[in-house]
Amino acid sequence: MRPAFAALREAGLSLVIAGNQPSEAGPALAAMDLGVDGIGISDDWGVSKPDAAFFDRVLALAGTARPGITAAEVLYVGDRVDNDVLPARAAGMRAALLRRGPYGYRHAAGPDAGRADTVVDDLHQLASWIAAQD
């Protein structure tokens, strides 16, 4: 994960982590020193995916790293179509489906996987896909 994050940062991207997690996850993620611009935890926000308000919070968090960013400039990465891809798209964001774990593989095989801008097996593939978009 660290090398992929480094490649994404070297490409000039801002990175935030946001997910459905308990409050304890925030300090644990911060202690990992992943080089991200922000961490958003659903329990701290009082709202969780797939609620649209969660994705509003993601956009606000991204805005702290890159003021003036629009939803269309955000690529939300997740391993579920129902909790990640579809609500991110509804929020006006782009979406990448990460094929990892049981949800990622099952959701990538479903018909709604095509709603994602890309389906990747890991964050290194994501960095390559982003580089190819420029």
What does the model show?
- The chain has 134 residues and is an alpha/beta fold.
- It has one domain (2-133): Rossmann fold (3-Layer(aba) Sandwich).
- Helices cover 47% and strands 15% of the residues.
- It has helices at 2-10, 25-31, 42-45, 52-65, 81-90, 101-108, 123-133, and strands spanning 16-19, 38-41, 75-78, 94-98, 118-120.
- The chain has a 3-stranded parallel sheet, sandwiched between helices. The protein has a two-stranded parallel sheet with strand order 1-2.
- Helix 6 links the parallel strand 4 and strand 5.
- Helix 1 (2-10) packs parallel to helix 7 (123-133).
User: What is the averaged pLDDT score?
Assistant: 94
Approximate strand percentage: 5-15%
Strand order of the biggest β-sheet: 3-4-5
User: How many separate domains make up the residues?
Assistant: 1
Integer-rounded radius of gyration: 14 Å
Uncertain parts: none
User: Which CATH architecture would you pick?
Assistant: 3-Layer(aba) Sandwich
Number of distinct beta strands: 5
Figure out the total of helices.
Answer: 7
CATH topology: Rossmann fold
Element order, helices and strands? HEHEHHEHEHEH
First-to-last CA distance: 22 Å
Shape category:
globular
Give a short summary of the structure.
The chain has helices spanning 2-10, 25-31, 42-45, 52-65, 81-90, 101-108, 123-133; strands at 16-19, 38-41, 75-78, 94-98, 118-120.
